[in-house]
TrEMBL record:
<dbReference type="Pfam" id="PF00512">
    <property type="entry name" value="HisKA"/>
</dbReference>
<comment type="similarity">
    <text>In the N-terminal section; belongs to the phytochrome family.</text>
</comment>
<comment type="subunit">
    <text>Homodimer.</text>
</comment>
<keyword id="KW-0157">Chromophore</keyword>
<dbReference type="GO" id="GO:0006355">
    <property type="term" value="P:regulation of DNA-templated transcription"/>
</dbReference>
<dbReference type="GO" id="GO:0000155">
    <property type="term" value="F:phosphorelay sensor kinase activity"/>
</dbReference>
<dbReference type="GO" id="GO:0007234">
    <property type="term" value="P:osmosensory signaling via phosphorelay pathway"/>
</dbReference>
<dbReference type="GO" id="GO:0009881">
    <property type="term" value="F:photoreceptor activity"/>
</dbReference>
<feature type="domain" description="Phytochrome chromophore attachment site">
    <location>
        <begin position="145"/>
        <end position="303"/>
    </location>
</feature>
<dbReference type="InterPro" id="IPR003018">
    <property type="entry name" value="GAF"/>
</dbReference>
<keyword id="KW-0418">Kinase</keyword>
<dbReference type="GO" id="GO:0030295">
    <property type="term" value="F:protein kinase activator activity"/>
</dbReference>
<keyword id="KW-0600">Photoreceptor protein</keyword>
<dbReference type="Pfam" id="PF02518">
    <property type="entry name" value="HATPase_c"/>
</dbReference>
<keyword id="KW-0716">Sensory transduction</keyword>
<dbReference type="Pfam" id="PF00360">
    <property type="entry name" value="PHY"/>
</dbReference>
<keyword id="KW-0472">Membrane</keyword>
Length: 743
């Protein structure tokens, strides 16, 4: 059988049961107790510390293993404080003539007690730890640089622990570890500025670093102490030792340490916003114990550092987002200046370039192509957009290594190794493209990243950590998450502007259609309505001239009266046309006013024109409204004068003005008991020069109701009418309750 490939072995490494190794590191021992404090599991090195074989301890009460006094202390602490998921210090007890720090945590129905012997060793003691932490807090409070924060942490942790090398490194988006700071003793190799490949730390190990923030290995050559029995007697499953301080680690990792010349190590996780930002990694060339108190202080120092890193990252990110947003606002401001959306984009090309920190930008709208800066050729851009339209259907496409996704891009990596592509239409192949140039850079690896080897079908870690330089071609500066988020926001704003323009065009088309109909009506009026009185003037003038020599003054007087009436009608038509035209151009000057006062004033204005007919005015309670009182009085004048005119044959004429409140608007009604009209023709009622009655029966130009509609619609309202022939008519208009636009 052929040995498995290295890729398969790495995959197997990912599945290694590192949380359930079934063993612990042998520098301490473990007891697993049930709720009654009876021993259910022990580590098989128990005899080394207690002088009692594992089989003899199983099923015994805790006091029988460690002595009554020690058991009583631990029982009291566990009863008072309880055990948590993460290990906590319980007490220091004496067993079999030796002192042990006892850690405890609860997991899977068991109380897991870990006993670590107290031994004299070099390094900071308790009395030295707290001043060091205080000094660290003071120093990092005055530091803004992330690298300097990490350097201070490396220096202080080395002072606390005595490790020969302390490194602080961060993980990039690919999982590689970049060494930002270190503190070394003489004789230790430096890895500052170098990169450790992501494959050094399998995925499940990274997850465990987030769950358990400190991991200590005192001696890389240890032989694991197995648990007896191997499985949890209560659950029948292997024990999850994720939070056990003594948990045994992967043999592959121990070999990795030995290959690196490291016999003792400690890792402190730097977790920012729930993600493994980096590690504080401590190495020593010889075995080295570290007390629980020292490890705890290092963990707290790591938490303090992580908090400052978060604040620094948040501050930098906020500043970056503000700069990008300012550029976006400048771009959007320029896009609202003219009517042509594409020409507007052309005018803000420099700002578009700055917005995406790009070297070139292109706007593709069907066959129309606009470029600025350093970009591929037009043909190459057209081919690229065709590929995007076929293969990419997201709101945003981005790549810092375009040729790896689109092979043809290898021909223009110098100007476009990176691409940010934004479709700006949901229907057509319209794109906004940003190009970033190639950024050739070097990576100094701490050993070749492909240095893992397979021996006899078993994966072994790399053996060399000598610096190895890799030169990266064909890639651009990466697209930051903030840039992508703001690009999506920018796209939404662009589509909003385009939609608003489309709505404006639709409104304009509707307005043009209405204006065209009005123009047609105007043409008809000029050719028909206005021509009729002019024809009368000419006709009666001819008759007057023919009878100039006659002695019939009454006949001449009648001709002159007809000429005067026709001229007055022609003048009225012209006046109404001018008034209608002004209704569409004049600016509104809205104020808050009383509609009741406006109605009374309009009735008073009508008084001189009223005949001797009897009119019963019924004006109900009317509220205050917002609007232009001059315009609305003209609308009321037209409605009330129509009511008077068409109820002239009623005795008495009853004209009622009332109002009602509807959601979001106030509705006014003007009702009369006049001749009414046929509802089949209501659609013509508010058109220009539209009359539903003969001129001989009721005088008028047919412009009054068109004026009413235009005035009300300019106030954001609506107008309509209802009638039954012979029973009168009701004309209604609604005004919105909100303030109106003055344009």
């Amino acid at each position: 059988m052929q040995p498995a490939s290295i890729t398969d072995q790495i995959a197997n490494c990912e599945r290694e049961p590192i949380r359930t190794p079934g063993a612990i590191q042998p520098h301490g021992f473990l007891l697993a107790l049930d709720p009654a404090l009876k021993v259910l599991q022990v580590s098989d090195n128990l005899a080394r510390f207690i002088g009692l074989a594992p089989e003899q301890a199983l099923g015994q009460p805790l006091a029988a293993i460690i002595g009554g006094e020690a058991a009583e202390v631990l029982a009291w602490v566990m009863e008072e404080g309880g055990l948590r998921e993460r290990p906590s210090y319980l007490a220091t007890v004496r067993c079999n003539g030796s002192e042990f720090d006892v850690l405890g945590h609860a997991w899977d129905q068991l109380a897991m007690l870990e006993f670590e012997p107290i031994a004299d060793h070099s390094g900071a003691g308790l009395q030295q730890l707290y001043p060091l932490v205080g000094d660290f807090l003071n120093k990092i409070s005055d530091t803004d640089s992330i690298v300097e924060l990490c350097r201070l942490a490396a220096v202080d942790i080395r002072a606390m622990t005595g490790f020969g090398r302390v490194m602080v490194y961060s993980f990039d988006e690919d999982g590689h570890g970049n060494v930002l700071a270190e503190c070394l003793a003489n004789g230790y190799d430096s890895y500052l500025g170098q990169r450790f490949p992501a494959s050094d730390i399998p995925r499940q190990a990274r997850e465990l670093y987030v769950a358990n923030r400190v991991r200590m290995i005192q001696h890389a050559d240890y032989t694991p102490a197995q648990l007896v029995p191997a499985e949890n007697p209560l659950s029948g499953q292997p024990n999850d030792l994720s939070f056990a301080a003594l948990r045994s680690v992967s043999p592959v990792h121990l070999q990795y340490m030995r290959n690196m010349g490291t016999m003792a190590s400690m890792s402190v996780s730097l977790v920012v916003k729930g993600r493994l930002w980096g590690l504080i990694s401590c190495h020593h060339a010889e075995p080295r114990p570290l007390s629980f108190h020292q490890r705890t202080v290092c963990e707290q120092l790591g938490q303090i550092l992580a908090l400052h890193l978060k604040n620094r990252n948040d501050s930098d990110e906020l500043q970056f987002r503000l700069e990008v947003r300012r550029a976006m606002v400048r771009v959007l401001g320029g896009l609202t200046q003219g009517a042509d959306f594409i020409d507007n984009l052309r005018s803000v090309l420099p700002e578009l370039l700055h917005f995406a920190r790009a070297g070139g930008v292109a706007i593709v709208v069907d066959e129309r192509l606009i470029t600025f800066g350093d970009t591929p050729s037009n043909a190459q851009i057209q081919d690229l957009t065709a590929w995007l339209a076929t293969n990419r259907h997201d709101d945003l496409f981005h790549s810092a290594h375009l040729s790896a996704r689109y092979a043809a891009a290898a021909d223009y990596t110098a100007c476009a190794s990176g691409l940010l592509a934004m479709p700006i239409s949901r229907i057509h192949q319209h794109y906004l493209l940003w190009f970033r140039p190639e950024h050739v850079y070097h990576i100094d690896w701490a050993g070749r990243p492909d240095g893992k080897q397979s021996t006899n079908g078993m994966l072994s870690p790399r053996t060399s950590f000598a610096a190895w330089r890799e030169t990266v071609h064909g890639a651009s500066a990466p697209w930051r998450e903030a840039e992508l988020e703001l690009a999506l926001e920018f796209r939404g704003a662009l589509l909003g502007i385009a939609l608003e323009r489309a709505e404006q065009m639709a409104d304009l088309a509707e307005e043009l259609g209405r204006a065209n109909k009005e123009l047609e009506a105007f043409s008809y009026s000029v050719s028909h309505d206005l021509r009729a009185p002019l024809r009368h003037i000419v006709g009666f003038s001819d008759l007057l001239m023919e009878t100039a020599g006659s002695d019939n003054p009454e006949r001449r007087q009648r001709f002159l009266a007809n000429i005067k009436d026709a001229a007055r009608l022609a003048g009225k038509l012209v006046d109404d046309l001018l008034s209608f035209s002004q209704m569409g151009r004049a600016a509104l000057r809205p104020i808050r006013f009383s509609m009741a006062d406006l109605v009374r004033g309009t009735i008073d204005k009508l008084a001189p024109e009223l005949t001797a007919q009897r009119i019963d005015w019924q004006v109900g309670p009317l509220p205050e409204v917002s609007g232009d009182p001059a315009f609305l009085q003209l609308a009321l004048y037209n409605l009330l004068s129509n009511a008077v005119k068409f109820s002239a044959n009623s005795n008495p004429a009853r004209i009622r003005v009332s109002c009602e409140q509807l959601p979001g608007e106030t509705v006014f009604h003007v009702a009369d008991n006049g001749v009414g009209f046929n509802m089949e023709y209501v659609h013509k009622l508010f058109g220009v020069f539209q009359r539903l009655h003969r001129m001989e029966d009721f005088q008028g130009t047919g412009i009054g109701l068109a004026n009413v509609r235009r005035i009300v619609e300019r106030h954001g309202g609506r107008v309509w009418a209802n009638s039954t022939p012979g029973e009168g008519a009701t004309f209604s208009f609604a005004l919105p309750n909100t303030d109106i636009d003055t344009d």
